[in-house]
Specification:
The chain folds into 2 domains: 164 residues, NAD(P)-binding Rossmann-like Domain (Rossmann fold, 3-Layer(aba) Sandwich); 88 residues, Alpha-Beta Complex (UDP-galactose 4-epimerase, domain 1). By secondary structure, the chain is an alpha/beta fold. The two termini are 24 Å apart. α4 runs parallel beside α5. Helices cover 41% and strands 18% of the residues. β1, α1 and β2 form a beta-alpha-beta unit. The chain is globular, with a radius of gyration of 20 Å.
Length: 315
């Protein structure tokens, strides 16, 4: 049985990725600085600080994984502006700690690093893997830098390091500081109150590529199982959904009249009108296609908030 070690396993995507590997016959170990209470019981959980190189070396030496996936990161653009030094430290030095251990290891595990669509020059045309990189925020810059180190370690040390650039993804378990869980939570709370209500929003005209998180973690597994570690793949739905359409769908799930009020303070003049993924390469080379769409995720999240009050990851 192949062994996989997931850094950042306690987060939103980590829970799903653990289950994806378990369902495909892997022995799964997960690590995080925080608790692993949301993880499936079959996962061996270790509390480890990715920034402590000695802890990383000890854990990898103990588990001897065949595959390492790094999800541990500052993953919010907004947060990266507030703490650029921390963002670079965790997203770059943390990745380097893993690469250094792998470089010195006899086993030479496969490694998957998760980048972002934030690395690209943004245009209204679908973005493919050859789109020029020109990140314009600390988060995106940290991911570009991570990729450059991955390329260096592939070429200089022969490591099998894979990189992926996912676009937006959502699902049960995502924090309500993100836009779609926030919409679901607000509408569900109004519906539970039994009274009509109002929600304040920003620019609903923007269109973004959203995927269901279950599709994204399946892509991660398929990428790190593939033979070509030199190819970077986009992962996205290939569809640009407007926030307005998604909010209208969520409101349609409720039984109350809900007024939408645009708060001008929430509108950013630099918002790109459309961001869409060209996912043709991963489909052509690995056979990956989405099995869900964002509306499936919206309904699942809304029902969690409506019935249980929390956007909890399912058992």
């Amino acid at each position: 049985m192949s062994r996989v070690l997931i850094f950042g396993a306690g987060g939103f995507v980590g829970s799903y990725l653990c289950k994806e590997f378990l369902n495909n016959g892997y022995k799964v170990s997960g690590t995080d600085k925080g608790e692993g209470s949301a993880l499936p019981s079959e996962v061996d959980f270790y509390r480890t600080d990715l920034m402590q190189a000695n802890e990383v070396e000890k854990l990898i030496g103990q588990i001897q994984p065949d595959i390492i996936v790094n999800l541990a990161a500052i993953s919010s653009v907004g947060a990266s502006w507030n703490m650029p030094q921390t963002t670079m430290a965790i997203n770059v030095i943390g990745a380097l700690n893993i690469m250094e251990v792998a470089r010195k290891s006899e086993q030479k595990p496969r490694i998957l690093f998760v980048g972002s669509s934030e690395e690209y020059v943004i245009s209204e045309n679908p973005l493919d893997e050859n789109t020029r990189l020109n990140a314009n925020n600390p988060y995106g810059i940290s991911k570009v830098t991570q990729e450059q180190f991955a390329k260096l370690y592939r070429e200089q040390y022969g490591l099998k390091i894979y990189c992926v650039r996912p676009f937006n993804h959502t699902g049960i378990g995502q924090r309500d500081s993100f836009v779609l869980p926030s919409f679901c939570k607000q509408v569900a709370e109004i519906d539970k109150s039994g009274k009509d209500g109002k929600i304040q929003v920003g620019n609903l005209k923007v269109k973004r590529d959203f995927s269901h998180v279950k599709d994204v973690v399946r892509a991660y597994r398929m990428i790190v199982e593939s033979d070509n570690c030199n190819q970077i793949y986009n992962v996205g739905s290939g569809n640009a959904y407007s926030l307005e359409d998604m909010l209208t769908y969520i409101i349609g799930l409720s039984n109350q009249h809900i007024e939408i009020e645009v708060d001008q303070n929430r509108i950013r003049p630099t918002d790109q009108p459309v961001i869409c993924c060209d996912r043709s390469l991963i489909g052509k080379e690995l056979g990956w296609e989405p099995q869900y769409n964002v509306y499936d995720a919206l309904k699942e999240m809304y029902e969690c908030y409506r019935n249980g009050g929390e956007n909890k990851w399912p058992e």
